[in-house]
Q: What sequence folds into this?
């Protein structure tokens, strides 16, 4: 089993930045594609960004392209999401996820999920 723990959430002003981290334990992430998802109150969980196991392929939701950057450090068993130019509509609970298959991760059917970290952006 793999455990994922997010950190780095909090309160930011519009236009500001936050960096989320996801620490994995129990298994090495080297064979897993990983991603960030978010869920706002009353809404479905949606994809934010994905990164392949080797880090060579990334994908982003249109709403965050050019503002968010996903990265991973397999040696540290960790993944990050740098969020710049934050907007109030970025307010949500952010989850990290891992799966062996990119297609499953893309459709939010990942095997492993963290508990989430809250991001609140004030206008």
A:
């Amino acid at each position: 089993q793999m455990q994922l723990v997010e950190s780095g959430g909090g309160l930011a002003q519009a236009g500001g930045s936050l960096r989320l981290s996801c620490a994995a334990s129990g298994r090495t992430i080297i064979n897993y594609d990983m991603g960030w998802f978010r869920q706002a109150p009353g809404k479905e969980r949606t994809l934010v960004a994905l990164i392949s196991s080797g880090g060579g392929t990334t994908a982003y939701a249109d709403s965050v392209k050019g503002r968010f950057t996903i990265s991973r450090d397999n040696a540290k068993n960790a993944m990050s999401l740098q969020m710049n130019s934050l907007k109030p509509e970025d307010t949500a609970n952010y989850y990290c996820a891992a799966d062996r298959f990119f297609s499953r991760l893309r459709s939010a059917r990942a095997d492993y999920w963290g508990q989430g970290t809250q991001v609140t952006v004030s206008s």
